[in-house]
């Protein structure tokens, strides 16, 4: 087993978490906040957009069962990466489309995937690439939100 991590934002983290938790090779998911300017943010602060954090999902996966590339390709199929700070009815910087990278190789690979994915969209992809930030785990009631409520269909 080769454990790896990927941190992504694609709108409301409840649906993103549910969708990624169903992907082959994904071991664990957690929702939280990253990419902002406030330590230990809470949901209310993030929703007011005062922190500049994105709602993100930290994905733990087995690199022998799936790849970062496969998960990133899925990322582009499960949300609209052409809407700036918006997914469906949700708007604000916390809903931005974002990929966090740990090193230059990951950044270059993500740039390559974005370039290839652009052919699937009529509008420019606005997904940002941001250097890996501190992951602030969201409040417990947000973790596995849909699963806890017996909802098998997310909002993406």
Structural class given helices, strands, pairing? alpha+beta
What is the general shape? globular
Distance between the termini: 30 Å
Instruction: Count up the helices.
Output: 5
Strand arrangement, largest sheet? 7-6-1-3-2-8
- Percent of residues in helical segments? 25-40%
Strand share of the residues? 25-35%
Average pLDDT: 95
- The count of strands amounts to 8
Gyration radius from CA atoms, angstroms? 14 Å
Largest sheet: 6 strands, mixed
Note the run of SSEs as H and E.
EHEHEHEEEHEEH
| Spans of at least 5 consecutive residues with low confidence | none
Question: Which key phrases capture this entry?
Answer:
single chain; 156 residues; alpha+beta; 6-stranded mixed beta sheet; two-stranded antiparallel ribbon; 26% strand
Structure description:
- By secondary structure, the protein is α+β, with helices and mostly antiparallel strands.
- Helix content is 28%, strand content 26%.
- The strands form two sheets. A six-stranded mixed sheet has the order 7-6-1-3-2-8, covered by helices on one side. Strands 4-5 form a two-stranded antiparallel ribbon.
- The longest helix has 14 residues, at 104-117.
- The termini are far apart.
- The mean pLDDT is 95.
């Amino acid at each position: 087993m080769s454990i790896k991590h990927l941190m992504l934002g694609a709108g409301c983290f409840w649906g993103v978490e549910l969708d990624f938790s169903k992907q082959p090779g994904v071991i664990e998911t957690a929702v939280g906040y990253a990419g902002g300017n406030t330590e230990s943010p809470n949901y209310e602060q993030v929703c007011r957009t005062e922190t500049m954090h994105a709602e993100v999902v930290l994905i733990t996966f087995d690199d022998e069962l799936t790849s970062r590339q496969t998960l990133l390709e899925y990322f582009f199929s499960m949300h609209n990466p052409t809407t700036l700070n918006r997914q469906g009815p949700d708007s604000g910087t916390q809903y931005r489309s974002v990929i966090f990278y740990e090193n230059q190789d990951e950044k270059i690979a993500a740039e390559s995937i974005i370039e290839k994915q652009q052919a699937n969209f009529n509008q420019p992809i606005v997904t940002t690439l941001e250097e890996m930030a501190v992951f602030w785990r969201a409040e417990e009631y947000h973790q596995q939100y849909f699963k806890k409520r017996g909802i098998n269909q997310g909002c993406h």
